[in-house]
Amino acid sequence: MREATVAPIKKKIEDVEVDEPDVRLTDWRAVCIAGLLTFLSSLEGTVVGMSEWPYMHTIDPEATSQFFGAVTSFSKAGHAIFALIFSYWSYKSQQIRWPLVAGRVIAFIACCIYLCVEFLPTGRRYLMMLCYFLFGVAGSSTCILRFYLVSVSSHADRARAFSAIVMANMLSIIIGPMVQLSFSGIKYPGVAFFSEHIRFHIYSAPIWIASLTNFVSVAIIFASLKELEKKQKTKKPSVFTLQGFKDRLQKLMAIDLHWSLISVCWLMKIIAQLAIVTLSTTAAPLMMASFGWDGSMTVQIMAVSMGTVGLLSIGLAVAWMVGGLGKLISPRVAFLISLLISVALYVLSYPYPQIGHSMPQYNETTRSGCNPAEYSWCDTEMSTTPFIFMPVVIVVMGIGLPLASISLDTIYSKVLGNIDQSLMQGAIIVAEDLILIVGPIYSASIFTAYGQDKLWLINAVITAAGTVLWLTVFKRVKAYS
To answer: Model-level pTM greater than 0.85?
Structure first.
């Protein structure tokens, strides 16, 4: 079903700006296909992410939380670099099918290596690092679906189109934990398949399922994904030549864009991701060290929590997309609310001495509890209670994250206007990946050296400063809300 909408855009003719109506029709079928492909890609990342640290900590005792932070950063570095490569490939070839197929092939290879990691007698954490790098590369291919949505949606429908992508990501957070929980009864080391080193257990079972999603994705790409109409090509020097780079830079700078607001959007993307990066890096080590949970218990609790996160996120996305929430709350206000939710995370789940408890002793058998050989603060720091920590995390990830994503993506695409947004959409992904690269090392290092309280305090100050910055441009972004 297509829906015609009209929105004013600006076009330069002989250095004179005139207004033209945007009569582009929103192709809702294409939006749904893009959402489905996003879901299948995200599902793979979700089922891998819940057991990353518990599995690595189980099969390689030498793996530390600081090493896990480095692994996460390495994966995000691959994502950042290849986001640009896939974006440029799609931009240059004016197609999206083959970049998406390449991403799915890389993901399948990563799944195969992941299932064979126990063939190594030692140093398994390094092979897992390679797997996570490949998963990051594969996931970056879906970044081109962002500017695909811009191309198939009208200016007025942009928010609803982007909420479809967010909904797909959140749906994967519901289905992923369900897949993980369905295998929770198969404790490690599980059942051997084909070889003593290829096993089916709580950590590996979801990967067997996730690997099949790549075949489904490729089938959908070739059968249902509509390529965009190719524009007439002109002879230009390659962007990898000095002249080509200069030409493109001059062309980009000549466009009448609001660079100050664009820069603020990049910075806000980084700040909005800080809480998520911190939680994804330290949540599992924190649960095992502070709450005394073993790997299996940690995975099960995370699965239930992430399932709840998915339900909240889906509800929010549906309310925004079809329930009128997007009209009731403007994107600029929605993003402000998301920042305040992140600040609340650090305030409410801080390990206050009055309500906290001491760290549980380390158990060599289950590798749970606070290990003084890894954390020097085991005997001095306090831990927050899981009855406060888990609900707050669920609210932040289930409401704060999707609210920030929908609202900021909408504002950013409208600030860019009616231009070819492929490279600029790639730019904000790279801005996001900067915190995804640096953040895990930063979070893991602070957590390992000083504990949760210092990390929470620093993050609270950074997020509060970002909130103040957003308030300074609050009136300026009203025109794009």
So the answer is: no
